[in-house]
Design brief:
There is one protein chain. By secondary structure, the protein is an all-alpha fold. The protein has a domain at 186-394. The protein is 69% helix and 2% strand. The strands form two sheets. Strands 1-2 form a two-stranded antiparallel sheet. Strands 3-4 form a two-stranded antiparallel ribbon. The longest helix has 36 residues, at 229-264.
Amino acid sequence: MKVLTKISPPNMINIWIYIVIISIIARFLVWTFAIFYPIPNETGLLISPILPNSGIDLNFYLSETIKYKNYLLSIYNYIFSSSLTYVTNDPNFSDVPISPGPIFPVILIISNFINYPWVLSFLYLLISSYLIYISIKWLNKKNIHWFWLLSFGGLPVPFWYMLNISPDLIFSLVVTLYIFVITDTRDTINKHIYYLLILCFLSILLKPNGISLFIFSSYFILFNYSFNRILLVFIIFTFIILSIGFIYFYGNYLISYILSSNEHRTFFGYYQKEYFIGIYDFLPKIVDQLFSIISLAIIKLIYFSGIRPTYGDTLNLFIIIRSSAGLIIFPGIIWLFIKANNNIRIFTIIFLIPIMLGLAQERYSIPIYPLLYYYGVLFYSNSFKSIYNIAKFN
């Protein structure tokens, strides 16, 4: 009971370092295991460091790499020599393929993922190791007990997205660093703004979800720092121009995400549009719709935390393992809105809104895992402490 109720500093000053080492070794062992024994995803596709496979829209990103190659080669031909047009099949470079964000397709090109998948996979192992290091270090500074630090290092979902190549792991690193900046009170104003803007634009170049960071950055800068009138007008004008540009390039991405969620996936057996019509037929129509929409919101948060059925043919054991993280992440979401400060609440709301419009699932929660896990630990610690005090009093 002491472990579950105590949030005080660990009894060993540097125990978090040993937990980081254990977590990194565990990642290396899983990565090595997958080389010899590929792990099937929900569609049955084998995922391994030596196989150029991914269940996360890989074909979409690979097709974008071809567009980027043609686009860059076309620019080269235009600038240096029209006689070199034979190196690309598409001399037209007016259509910039920006819909998925350029960073990940470029990484696929540089790493030659199709021919040498292990190169990018090994890089993901390093990124995952660094991410767990900075996350545990941050949680340790929050005075989380070593038991919870060790549990965080063993959460199953980050292991999977280390193996399953997609933009999600890199995006998670950027967003995690972003969270550390907005929760850090030690840096100067200039450093805060500098870091926020760099991480914000990196996130936008990775995934459309990065626009959420841009919106929050604008709010955070405008409402937490003082500027003279001219600079303030300039910031607002810049925000409006950039917002129009982002909406233009990424708007169709959001629309397709919402439509695909409505048409192709269900939430505990019902399509999203059915919740808006009403799923509680025994209730009056208005009450039915109200309760159905509330149910949909709660269910999406549950899916977002990782507690969801499979979309394919996955072993029940794997579903249980994946869902286990949600037992901490889901209460963390609720507790965050109760206990966090306004900046963290607003950041989380802005981050969640576009995700909640479509098929929320655990891959979208990884970027804010440390934050949600921290509040999940606070929830359980306070709950067990209350139970312990009541039992002791009786």
